[in-house]
Design goal:
heterodimer, A: 142 residues, mainly alpha, flat, B: 178 residues, 2 domains
């Protein structure tokens, strides 16, 4: 890409990434949540890859690591949901942590944790789909 | 507000038709974007910021990917003259559209006006949801507490979709020696 695109990306991408994290972490207070924030984080990663490009081997490595993050995040969500079996009324998706005061950042029990793991899962999934398309293009052009 | 939403839906219908009719695939993709971004404004007017955020981000990322794909492949769409069988399909579509429209008019007359009245379950969710779930954002409270199974299903669908993409878009196996 040109110098203008590279410089603009360099200035913007950190803010986009931080905004994604903000949307994920404040999912139980303000509009947004895991899905929206995860997509914003994935967008910042895609922006970096589009602007700077990357070596084929690095792309393969990134794909493997993103797949790992994605699968670990979904396993964590299932484990958190299954954690409801251990405390209180023993049902799946039981909110077992103390709920705290409504409107505080640390409140609502396990809901913020669900948000964070779903955010990681969504970000990694979208990025893996994008990387798979790029790798497919590079492999087929060889 | 209803007038604004009606105009936006008209724009969306025009965009959808243009996306079907356009000869250049790139302008077809841009017309799809017209549908998506009009939907974002509809969500904002109907007071659903959660949906609007998700829709605007998903729309942008899918547009980027689609534009990249279109620029990389052929931009021209091949025109084929419709044969006899397609005329039969068009006639069947028109009949089906008329029947659907008739039922739609009948069902709209028996519904509450937009934004008024709520279902029994919705009432239970709205009343005291903050106290029950501890979450100030009602949508997140419903997503991760009342409807936890739904969210888990969505996340698993995304993981499965990624597995499918990785399986289809792989020309070489990772161990080429075997």
């Amino acid at each position: 890409m040109t110098l203008i695109v590279k410089k603009t990306t360099q200035l913007m991408v950190g803010m986009i990434f931080m905004y994604g994290i903000y949307v994920v972490v404040h999912g139980h207070l303000t509009p947004g949540g895991g899905f929206a924030g995860g997509m914003i984080i994935a967008g910042s990663l895609i922006l970096i890859t589009l602007a700077y490009g990357s070596d084929f081997l690095i792309l393969m490595k990134e794909e493997t690591e993103s797949t790992l993050v994605e699968n670990l995040a979904i396993i964590m969500v299932i484990l958190l949901a299954a954690g409801g079996f251990l405390f209180g009324t023993r049902i799946f998706f039981n909110n077992f942590l103390p709920k705290g005061e409504v409107g505080e950042l640390i409140s609502a029990g396990v809901i913020p944790l669900y948000n964070i793991f779903i955010g990681a899962e969504v970000a990694a999934s979208i990025f893996v789909i994008f990387l798979a398309l790029i790798i497919f293009k590079e492999e087929s052009s060889e | 507000m209803e007038a604004a939403v009606s105009i936006l839906i008209g724009v969306m219908i025009i965009g959808a038709f243009y996306a079907l009719m356009a000869k250049d695939l790139l302008s077809s993709v841009i017309a799809c974007g017209m549908v998506g971004y009009s939907l974002v404004i509809c969500f904002l007017l109907l007071k659903a910021p959660d949906l609007a955020i998700v829709q605007i981000v998903v729309e942008t990322i899918t547009l980027i990917i689609m534009v990249a794909v279109v620029l990389d492949s052929s931009r021209e769409e091949k025109y084929q003259k419709p044969d006899k069988r397609e005329y039969i399909a068009m006639a069947a579509g028109a009949v089906f559209l008329a029947i659907m429209l008739w039922f739609f008019v009948g069902s709209v007359q028996s519904l509450d006006p937009l934004g008024e009245g709520s279902l029994r379950m919705a009432k239970y969710y709205i009343e005291g949801a903050a106290a029950k779930t501890g979450s100030a954002n009602l949508v997140t409270g419903v997503l991760f507490d009342f409807r936890g199974y739904d969210t888990l299903g969505e996340a698993v669908v995304l993981v499965t979709a990624v597995l499918g993409v990785l399986t289809i878009l792989r020309l070489k196996g990772k161990k080429t020696g075997q």
